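Hello Y.,

Per our agreement to keep a running log of every chain we model this quarter, I'm adding this entry. I've kept the format consistent with earlier entries: sequence first, then predicted structure.
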Amino acid sequence: MVRKLDVVAIGNAIVDIIAPSDDAFLDRVNIKKGAMELIDGARASLLEGKMVSPVASCGGSAANTVVGLSNLGGNCGFIGKVKNDVAGEQFKSSMKELNIIFETPPSTEGAPTAKCLIFVTPDAQRSMNTFLGASTELQPLDLSKELIGLSKILYLEGYLWDPPNAKRAFLEAINIAKESKTKVALSLSDAFCVDRYRSEFLDLIEKHVDILFGNETEILSLYQTKSFDEAVQLVQKDCDVVALTRDARGSVVVENNNFFEIKPQKVSKVIDTTGAGDLYAAGFLYGISRDMDIRQCGKLGGLAASQIITQFGARPETSLAPLIDRVTKTD
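Predicted structure for the entry above:
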């Protein structure tokens, strides 16, 4: 089969609205600095009204990853639920501008399109307030069997394991991928997700996942250990390809029990850490889809992540493509 797409991602379709802030403001409106909090529609409207010079773009973890992939030159699709409202049209238009296939039918009833209100303080910490809205209403009927079948890799966002209908869509997408010999990649997304669904995630990883993404906190939670080295030894038994980020210490990548440490990239000034993990996954998946070796994939992921944190927001402001040459010419 000729694969026309590198990656199709399934995740929460969220409009990110990002604005600068300071600690005093966060205290006034009772936002926990550096955390992600789920909020209702009324709270979302209140906080959005207090934003100064906000910037809106298509967002959500998996969406950020395919945006990064597209910027690198990858051919991508996205499956996620919006409503036929203004924010939903913003999301759809944003994906179209980036040449990402997005054909999931919008809902006509129920909750509005999801929004994530992100306040970034001068120390580059981002405090996220997420109203999930219509994104949780994804169901198996929303899947495109053709789109998944045309892709080399199906990338799944762990956040979507919460809503029952989305979980069913998740599992159906995996079945479609296996039938069409499309590789399955999973992001653990958040340590709180892992805490809630540890046994289910472990079963999923062992039986269905070909490529696993996580950070140090998430992998320690998954295997309930305080030792990162022990967690790496355990995950090698469950999954062939693993990429684990460690913030300023770089990352660790594993392939068929071969373990490699990827050195961190030097960054002159960190502006905003929004999307660092998502862009790491973008670089790594681009490398996998183009048959780079595992170390090159990890290095490209690190380069993409290091570039995104020098700007405001999770959408690259300049082309990431030159990073590919930096990897292939030096390795």
